[in-house]
Amino acid sequence: MDQSYPYVTKLDIKFDHLQKLDIPEMVKACKDKWFNQTLTRVNDSVIRVGIVEGEYHWHKHDNDDEFFFVLEGQLLVDLEDRTIELNPGQGVTVTRGVVHRTRAPKKTVMLMVENHTIMPTGD
Predict the structure, then answer these.
(1) Other residues' Cβ atoms within 10 Å of the Cβ of residue 30
(2) What does the pLDDT read at residue 7?
(3) Would you say the pTM of this structure is higher than 0.85?
(4) Domain that holds residue 15
């Protein structure tokens, strides 16, 4: 079932190996409330930047773990039984198959490390 979501998700790789990337410049240029851009590929994983405010929908990834690391702001990772609060310099790995959603009460910048084949909106 194909579903549309109100997020800007760019799965193309924006930076080649050995090309410098500038997160502060990307943040400055971002006008979207929930923006996700693949930065680069490292072996079978991708590094993505999320520039977000508001909440994502509940979802899970049956075959892939997902790592979130906060650079600026605050990210709340809701699980079925608790919420993990992440502030700058903090991160967490969500295990495959775990139902979760992310929320940002204020503008938040985070890095994500995921399998290159993952569908960010869930399985």
Answers:
(1) 17
(2) 92
(3) yes
(4) 8-115
